[in-house]
From TrEMBL:
InterPro entries: Glc/Gal-6P_isomerase, Glucosamine6P_isomerase, Glucosamine6P_isomerase_CS, NagB/RpiA_transferase-like. Belongs to the glucosamine/galactosamine-6-phosphate isomerase family. NagB subfamily. Pathway: Amino-sugar metabolism; N-acetylneuraminate degradation; D-fructose 6-phosphate from N-acetylneuraminate: step 5/5. PANTHER family: GLUCOSAMINE-6-PHOSPHATE ISOMERASE. This is Glucosamine-6-phosphate deaminase. The keyword DNA damage does not apply. One of its GO terms (cellular component) is cytoplasm. It holds the Pfam family Glucosamine_iso. One of its GO terms (biological process) is N-acetylneuraminate catabolic process. The gene is nagB. It comes from the Bacteria.
């Protein structure tokens, strides 16, 4: 595990963006696994800056997002489709046809999950999977459980996740209760993984995920088994390491 701690969040954003941008510079057909949440916003901003400076083109790249809420219209302000457009896709030349997110409104969600996995398979391996982490150690929307699921699947969100994500909605009752997420197996299949952890409120889970036992109680702890894991942390998140 390659662990990098930053005093300055701008430097962390630059380091994260550099990893994505240099991958696409050397492999223009790279397959990117992308994440949402507050954590990657600054990294996407920096990627967009690099694109606008003419340093990189995404026109041949492909992306797969980790997850999407079930039942939220695609153009809802808090859907992950909207998030990705706002923070990245509207500002770079990645063709919309190459950018994939699970369809949270599919008539048959299980068929949608299987189709999403098949699509990823057809693209070959994900070259770089970007990840944030939930306070309970979830990655994507893979919540702590006795068993974790390998492929893309429908999940019922944990109470803690609903509370954490309520900040984006008018009330907790408006947070969708279910989501479609790539599974732990799909995440671990990526060639390289870039996990980003920010903030004092993530210090405890950072410690458990990175140095604690490997357990399905902390889905992110399974990342310890990945041969090419880079973790970017700000000083506050790294406090207990
Ligand atoms: C969300 C997403 C995750 C994200 C996590 C943390 O619910 N499904 O992909 O990593 O929770 O979010 P944040 O970065 O806002 O703390």
């Amino acid at each position: 595990m390659n662990l990098l701690v930053f005093d300055d969040n701008e430097k962390l954003n630059e380091a994260g963006a550099n990893i994505i941008v240099s991958l696409v510079q050397t492999n223009p057909r790279a397959v990117l696994g992308l994440a949402t949440g507050g954590t990657p916003v600054g990294i996407y901003e920096q990627v967009v800056r690099n694109y606008k400076q003419g340093l990189v083109s995404f026109r041949n790249a492909v992306s797969y997002n980790l997850d999407e809420y079930v039942g939220l219209p695609e153009d809802h302000p808090e859907s992950y489709h909207t998030y990705m457009r706002q923070h990245l896709f509207d500002h770079i030349d990645l063709p919309w046809a190459n950018a994939h997110l699970p369809n949270g409104n599919a008539a048959d969600p299980d068929a949608e999950c299987a189709a999403y996995d098949e699509m990823i398979e057809r693209s070959g391996q994900i070259d770089l999977q970007l990840l944030g982490i939930g306070h309970n150690g979830h990655i994507g929307f893979n919540e702590p459980d006795t068993d974790l699921v390998r492929g893309t699947h429908v999940v019922t969100l944990a109470e803690e996740t609903l509370k954490a994500n309520a900040r984006y909605f008018d009330s907790i009752d408006d947070v969708p209760k279910r989501a479609i997420t790539m599974g732990i197996g799909s995440i671990l299949k990526a060639k390289t993984i870039l996990l980003v952890i920010r903030g004092a409120d993530k210090a405890e889970i950072a410690k458990r995920a990175l140095t604690g036992p490997i357990t399905t109680d902390v889905p992110a702890s399974l990342l310890q088994t990945h041969p090419r894991l880079t973790v970017l942390l700000d000083r506050a998140a790294a406090r207990l390491l």
